[in-house]
Design brief:
The structure is a single chain. Helix content is 57%, strand content 5%. The protein is built from 13 helices and 3 strands. The chain has a 3-stranded antiparallel sheet with strand order 1-2-3. The N and C termini lie far apart (54 Å).
């Protein structure tokens, strides 16, 4: 779709039409086909590529990716953005990057030493103490549920009463709109306090009523208490993998379970959460 007065291309004469892509992504968000966060990530990747790729072709795209992408997780984001561009802008599968070239790139990055990330030291008892010290019940339950479920803050913010079930002391959460619009069922880690208080909190509400505040509000309230919401998710991953290994699973099997609970598409993403601490 042409827009008068606007340069539809990225940097210079790039093959990537950034404005067209932005409009097409906006339509998908409006139709609830993808999330706003996913659209923002895709657009950011293509904007960067537009400044580095002029004529196109696999070798030029591959060269641009090799020159700026340092790790496999980041490479996958760029490839996903390219695939979506092929689908909604040029409407030609593999029009920019063939599957065989994609596989070659991924295998190349798998063989490369990945950057060593310093894992944040997150203390469970300290986190719980901060959460339990919150006077507002809704905020306290929100962060406690984040910690014990490993849900993203955006997923917690979308929860409704009907998404929570209690079964023999276990809390189950149905995620309908996770990252990439994927649904999954999450088993919350055992927490008698959370089970009791959340059940009481829910009992007075209608089944279609939203449980918690908006994503922005949750983040602001947690930051005021020096709690990073994503730290709760990281800590959950590390605690879960250890619990699974205590049940007799090896690290790879335990990581697979954790990846499913967290909604990760690739084990390499879970590895970032776990680091060396998760293996111990």
């Amino acid at each position: 779709m042409a827009v008068p007065g606007l340069n539809l291309k990225g940097g210079g004469d790039s093959i990537f039409h950034v404005v067209n892509y932005k409009m097409a992504l906006a339509r998908l968000v409006e139709k609830a086909a993808i999330t706003k966060d996913t659209a923002t990530t895709y657009l950011s990747c293509v904007r960067v590529l537009a400044d580095r790729v002029q004529e196109g072709g696999e070798e030029e795209i591959g060269g641009a990716l090799r020159g700026m992408v340092k790790e496999l997780v980041q490479l996958r984001k760029y490839i996903n953005a390219i695939r979506k561009y092929e689908e909604i802008v040029i409407k030609k599968p593999e029009g920019l990057l063939s599957r065989s070239y994609e596989s070659m790139l991924i295998n190349e990055y798998k063989r490369k030493p990945q950057p060593v990330r310093k894992n944040r030291v997150i203390d469970e008892s300290n986190i719980k103490r901060k959460i339990n010290g919150i006077h507002d019940l809704k905020t306290r339950l929100t962060l406690r549920l984040e910690l014990q479920s490993g849900l993203r803050v955006s997923e917690v913010a979308k929860l409704r009463v009907k998404d929570i079930t209690f079964n023999d002391g276990i809390i189950l959460v149905q995620v309908h709109e996770g990252k990439g619009r994927k649904s999954r069922k999450v088993k919350v880690r055992d927490d008698p306090y959370l089970h009791e208080k959340l059940r009481e909190y829910i009992s007075t509400k209608d089944k279609d009523e939203k449980l918690f505040n908006s994503r922005r509000s949750i983040s602001q309230k947690s930051h005021k208490r020096n709690i990073e919401t994503h730290d709760l998710r990281r800590l959950n991953a590390r605690m879960r993998v250890r619990e699974e290994m205590k049940k007799g699973k090896d690290f790879k099997e335990a990581r697979e379970v954790v990846a499913g609970q967290l909604g990760h598409s690739f084990p390499s993403t879970t590895d970032i959460y776990l680091g060396e601490r998760g293996k111990k």
